[in-house]
Amino acid sequence: MTLSPLQVLTLENFLSLPALEESPAWEFIDGAAIQKPMPKTRHSILQKRLLSEIDAHSKDYTALPELRCTFGGRSIVPDIAVVEWNRIPVNSAGEPEDNFMQPPDWTIEILSPDQNATRVIDNILHCLRHGSRLGWMLDPDDYSVLSFMPQQEPDVYRVDRQLPVIEGVDLNLTTQQLFSWLKIARR
Amino acid sequence: MTLSPLQVLTLENFLSLPALEESPAWEFIDGAAIQKPMPKTRHSILQKRLLSEIDAHSKDYTALPELRCTFGGRSIVPDIAVVEWNRIPVNSAGEPEDNFMQPPDWTIEILSPDQNATRVIDNILHCLRHGSRLGWMLDPDDYSVLSFMPQQEPDVYRVDRQLPVIEGVDLNLTTQQLFSWLKIARR
Fold first, then answer.
1. Among the partner residues B129, B146, B153, nearest to A151 by beta-carbon distance
2. Which chain B residue lies closest to A137 (C-alpha atoms)?
3. Is A129 within 8 Å of B153 when comparing Cβ atoms?
4. Where on the phi/psi map is residue A168: left (φ > 0), alpha (ψ -120 to 50), or beta?
């Protein structure tokens, strides 16, 4: 069985599909399977650098790329899921379980040029409703970060405003610094 | 003097420019003049129909298309500004003043295919921070409405969920009903 966009199925069926091994990842939202867009170069650079910066500034949390998180009737794959180490289930061999059935503590999405922003925001809000404490949507075309916290208005961060992080991650970063990573790639 | 995108100027200079009479409207955001995209057919249909529905369901509020609202250091032109009648300043001839220097009570934006969603959301959040009670971003490509209220998480409305309105507007409308207006146009 292969997946086609917006195919209607159950979460259980979806999770048993071989297509779940594909890249870019398929997500399950409101009864439909939707494939994430193929990441472009700018997306990959921001993702890779953020992963290492978050990991370098926390001992209790880890930043994971493309971790499938299944909870609240959806199965989503944030570009970066920041999760507390002690929340990652471990199997009898002492290795992480394959399935993560919780929201990340902090979800980060990097908007691709042709990606629908409302759908990305919808997934971030789904995380917040189920316990995530922070969500970021990076918009590389607008050089901005749209930040979400539970029970608050979102906020747009630009230029030299310091970005909000979760407690336990000691990262001081402005929007400008974040997008300057794209320039480093020109060397 | 003609305007070029992202030209840096003061709010005072911006407001004195003849280009302000142009359509699509120019907005002034963070020191830069930015022109709104040319509305497409679906945009126009949704805008026109929403205007008449809101007007038909309120006696205290009026829905105005392309009203320039200048406040808090920005000069923005929501696709629809819903404003309480008695908040509209009237001149000595009993006619509305040309300049509206307040946020609308309810701001409605209809996302165009090539429009940057973060910038649209940024303007909605600017309205909320300065006193607007409700903001909608219609996404015709996603058949969804992203709704914003002060000091709350935004919420995505789809299908048969009833859309939130402000007190004083007695409009019962689901997302599905709203986007079905596009189908009527095929007759």
1. B153
2. B118
3. yes
4. left
pLDDT at B39: 84
Between the alpha carbon of residue A11 and those of residues A23, A99, A132, B28, B163, the distances in Å are: 19, 14, 21, 46, 27
pLDDT at B109 over 90: yes
> Number of residue pairs across A and B with CB atoms under 8 Å?
68
Predicted confidence (pLDDT) per residue in B38-56, tens digit: 888 899 999 999 999 999 9
Chain A residues touching B141 at Cβ < 8 A: 116
| Neighbouring residues of B181: CB distance < 8 A, sequence distance ≥ 6 | B45, B46, B49
- The alpha carbon torsion through B53, B55, B57, B58 (nearest 10 deg) reads 160
Question: And the tokens for B105?
Answer: 């009570």
| Interface of chain A toward chain B, CB-CB under 8 angstroms | 30, 111, 116-119, 121-122, 125, 128-129, 137, 139, 141-142, 144, 146, 148, 150-156, 158
Contacts of B119 in chain A (CB under 8 A): 142
Is B111's pLDDT higher than 90? Answer: yes
Shortest Cα–Cα distance, B64 to chain A (Å): 25
ipTM: 0.83
- Which structural domains are found in chain A, ordered by start? 39-184 (3.90.1570.10)
DSSP secondary structure letter of residue A101: -
A113/A133 Cα distance (integer angstroms): 26
Residues of chain B with Cβ-Cβ distance to A141 below 8 Å are 116
Among A171, A142, A147, CA closest to A159: A142
pLDDT value for A185: 52
For residues B108 and B50, what is the distance between their CA atoms, to the nearest angstrom?
9
Contact B125 A30 (CB under 8 A): no
In chain A, the DSSP E strands lie at 7-8, 26-29, 32-35, 61-65, 69-71, 74-76, 80-84, 106-110, 134-139, 144-148, 155-158
Outline where A57-186 has alpha helix (H): 117-129, 175-184
